[in-house]
Amino acid sequence: MLGVHFAITAEQERALLSADDLDDAYAIDELLSGIEDAWAEDDLKVDTDKAWDAIHRSLTDGTLGPSSGQYPLSPAIIGGRHLHDDYYAVYVSTEQVQYLAEALHQVDRDRMRSAFDAIDDEEYAGALDDEDFEYTWSNFLDVRAFYDRAAAARRSVIFTAT
């Protein structure tokens, strides 16, 4: 599954949350598809390929559980509000984005490496070697910079993995 974060507009946020409140999976699919297909703001989007999995595990408790880990780092990838049952479509509010942008700067390379090395889950598909860590770290830096930009733009965030 390939992961992407989008810093969405207030209008997109309202539409997605309204569809979620109505439990309208079709409307959510359509809205997300429209966001993905028409996205033009490259500085307010970040692709994490498959590294999102290891990043989430490294920022939380080593598992892929959406409720794993501690706030404020837990919503960075899949710990936010889930909008779909069939795939990851995870919402993070503008307020949470502000906290995340700051908290992600508390994660340095050594802290990330220690957490990455502690991943002990048979379901993790990565290699858990130096190359896998470098891939994870590089993508984490991109995610951190993305959250900085999203916070500066006062946007909420949607993470999708399909």
Give a brief description.
The protein is α+β, with helices and mostly antiparallel strands and 162 residues long. Helices cover 48% and strands 15% of the residues.
Protein model, in words:
- This protein has 162 residues and is an alpha+beta fold.
- It has helices spanning 10-21, 25-38, 51-59, 94-104, 109-117, 130-152; strands spanning 3-8, 45-49, 81-82, 88-92, 156-161.
- It has one domain: Hypothetical protein yfbM fold, CATH 3.40.1760.10.
- The protein is globular.
- The mean pLDDT is 96.
| CATH superfamily membership | YfbM-like super family
Total number of helices = 6
Poorly predicted runs = none
CATH architecture: 3-Layer(aba) Sandwich
The fraction of residues in strands falls at 5-15%
Along the chain, the helix and strand elements come as EHHEHEEHHHE
Q: The CATH topology is what?
A: Hypothetical protein yfbM fold
Average pLDDT score? 96
CATH class category label: Alpha Beta
According to DSSP, the number of beta strands is 5
Main sheet specs: 5 strands, antiparallel
Helix content: 40-55%
Report how far apart the termini are.
5 Å
Overall 3D geometry? Answer: globular
* Structural class by secondary-structure content: alpha+beta
Computed CA radius of gyration, to the nearest angstrom: 15 Å
**Total individual domains:** 1
